[in-house]
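Q: Structure for this?
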Amino acid sequence: MRIALLHSRIRVEERLLLDELASLGIDHELIDVRELVFDIHDASRWTSFDAVIDRCIGQTQALAGVRVFERFGVRTVNPASVIEACGDKLTTSLLMARHEIPTPRTCIALDEASALAAVERIGYPAVLKPTTGSWGRLLARVNDRDAAEAVIEHKGTLGSVQHSVFYVQEYVPKPDRDLRVFVVGEEAICGIVRHSAHWITNTARGGVASVLEITPEIRDRCARAARAVAGPGGALLAIDLLEAPGRGLLVSEINHTMEFRNSIAPTGVNIPRRMIEWVVATAPGSAARGAAQSTVATSTPSTLAPPPSSPRSRAALVEELKLGHWAAFDAHSRTEVA
Amino acid sequence: MNPTAPTPPSVQSVECTECAASIALQRVPLCGEIVRCRDCQAELEVTSVSPLRVELAPEVEEDWGE
């Protein structure tokens, strides 16, 4: 079993993933996307990897790198289709709407004049968001027409070309909190509640986290959302949910390279361990898939084993960690998400 | 940070490029790793591990995110 971790910055999350790879005795290599040179006519340098885990902080670099690995026949986590589906809020919203998964009402406009019409159609207050980026950056809540005109003009004049896509969403009058659920495959493994007196509740913006009980509604909503962006089998995702009064849970955003450092302690779940276990279990390999067919599909808690002395095969890891229930999904047989 | 909590022994230290404070690293760093100066709060990126060097980490770019 050989895994590459594609990265730019090495944050706490990447360190934790590396620690888990090491503790499981998985042969792994760090690949800095900034130093990468692909000869697209020669895949030999890369085909020894069973999987490449994308942890790039920049979506453009991630997508380019992952596309090359996929064309070389190397399994990527998450795949390019998932990065495209989650990294662009417009695509995420379209997929939620198409699959009839509850999500905030959203309008798109491609010109400043029509953007104002879109805001008026949504009604006040409305939220304008850039279609890419995260951590609550550049979100704007507009409470009236004057504010909408000002924000739209500023975006049109000062923003990059990406800001000419006006993504307008209803403001959901949620409690002073939102929910973040960590999904491995299609399974909601744990979640946090992010509290903040500010309407932007991201922990990156000062929101405080506490543990979230995973209810059947959360489990169902997240499984459906994971299938919508990744197809059967899901992916490694962090799904943000809003509690809309009278409407239940709305899928707000889906993150494809989730940050989890502040969520391990409140949830008590070893999130990076579960991520690596899933990558191992779902990597291509007929022996492990065979083993999976005879395994009862139940949730398996992470058990921290002492570091092994030498790298082990995927089949041995699947057997030892009892991961067969996840290995039932073949990542390469996913239906295309259109 | 709890000021009374014991600080793990550092394995290496490096000078902050912003405020010249000494940054103690609790484990062997990796190239590309982000460390924060506790004095000036600057985010620094490890650009070389031998010799150990850090530079001010790049500002957030438009397509950065989770």
